[in-house]
From TrEMBL:
This is Flavin-dependent monooxygenase. Residues 7-230, 302-354 form the FAD-binding domain. GO terms for biological process: response to antibiotic. InterPro entries: FAD-bd, FAD/NAD-bd_sf, TetX_monooxygenase. Its EC number is 1.14.13.-. It comes from Streptomyces rimosus subsp. rimosus (strain ATCC 10970 / DSM 40260 / JCM 4667 / NRRL 2234). It is found in: Cytoplasm.
């Protein structure tokens, strides 16, 4: 019988969900090791800004004892959101942060993903994260334990392996044959700094939060991050190999600008600037999602959380629910006497919740990018 008090827990992946799980386990005196393929915390950019919701992301940070530190880093003003006409750039809809006139009822402060990850990493005991340890797979051993396999050839056995290793999880095959599928929508990401004065109109349009414009099956997002940086995205429905068909080299800025210029023909100049005049590279991001619903029969010794469990279109809920998954799993491991009972309790809570959420996100993506 594997008791949670003495369990050897391994988390594959040093993302938000895995880190908050590790933090809560350590708060309760439990042992945990995180294996991350990246070689250091700063090995790559951690992506855009996140709005943390009270009942999910913020609830997880509260359980981790980090909510006050989150609020000290977050940007409440980043909740401002506006939708503008793609031709005139005139405001069509607008939302303000709580406390402002016309504000919504929920407080969802923004924080850069990198800052949030840094907050979680700093909260862990030194040596918790083993950097540069890429997981290659996981094999349940039939006795309630699981063998974690690393790409360099080593193996280690644990009472519980948690697959928190994202969309292309190497742990997922231990419980499920599901594989992410292309949604039919691609994002092109770029960005600029608002110190770039060549077109201050866009910085004004974005304001402290998020700008949205759409026309047909094309949608533009511009989102302010910290330090004056604005990330911009254009989303459109297209075959995954659109660039091959169009003869566009994804690494050629001029070719990308020419393609996007045609797609944004007739759009307001301030909006076109978001994609066509910045100094940053373009990143092609086809959107993938796991089948809906994605569920599995319980396998002793292994489970999943976050994108590994329920990869869905990025409509503002994925990171929040990854954090909630991590908190729920850790709290179950603290509450239950046996590891297997804890994992069953977690999966019985997480799987129905994530299935319904994934369904909503799939429908939302069809509505946003028809």
């Amino acid at each position: 019988m594997n008791l949670t008090q003495d369990a050897r827990v391994a988390i594959a992946g040093g993302g938000l969900g895995g880190l908050v799980c590790a933090r809560i386990l350590q708060l309760h005196g439990r042992s945990v090791t995180v294996f991350e393929r990246e070689t250091s915390p700063d090995a790559r950019s951690q992506g855009s800004t996140l709005d943390l919701h009270p009942g999910t992301g913020q609830a997880a940070l509260r359980a981790a004892g980090l909510l006050d530190r989150f609020h000290a880093l977050s940007r409440p003003e980043g909740q401002e959101w506006r939708k503008v006409d793609h031709v005139t750039a005139a405001a069509q809809e607008q939302e303000w942060p709580p406390g402002d006139e016309g504000a919504g009822v929920e407080d969802r402060p923004e924080i850069d993903r990198g800052h949030l990850r840094g907050l979680l990493l700093d909260s862990l005991a030194p040596g918790t994260v083993h950097w540069g340890r890429a997981v290659g797979g996981a094999t349940p051993l039939g006795d309630g334990t699981c063998r974690l396999e690393f790409t360099e050839g080593a193996t280690e056995d644990f009472d519980l392996v948690v697959g928190a290793d994202g969309a292309w999880s190497r742990v997922r095959p231990a419980v499920s044959e599901a594989f992410p599928e292309y949604t039919g929508v691609t994002l092109i990401e770029t960005g600029f700094d608002d110190s770039d004065v060549r077109h201050p109109e866009l910085a004004r349009l974005v304001g402290p939060g998020t700008l949205v414009a759409e026309s047909g099956s094309t949608m533009l997002f511009a989102q302010r991050n910290s330090n004056g940086h604005i990330r911009t995205y254009v989303a459109f429905r297209t075959p995954q190999d659109w660039h091959t068909t169009a003869g566009v080299d994804l690494n050629d800025r001029a070719a990308m600008r020419a393609y996007l210029s045609k797609r944004l023909d007739g759009w307001a100049e301030g909006l076109r600037y978001a994609l066509l005049d910045g100094d940053h590279d373009f990143v092609n991001r086809p959107l993938f999602a796991l089948p809906v619903p994605h569920v599995w029969e319980h396998v002793p010794g292994v489970t999943l959380l976050g994108d590994a469990a329920h990869l869905m279109p990025p409509l503002g809920v994925g990171a929040n629910h990854a954090l909630l998954d991590g908190a729920d799993l850790a709290q179950a491991l603290v509450a239950e006497e046996r590891v297997d009972d804890a994992v069953r309790a977690y999966e019985e809570l997480m799987l129905p919740r994530s299935s319904e959420l994934a369904k909503q996100c799939a429908e939302g993506l069809k509505h946003m990018v028809p």
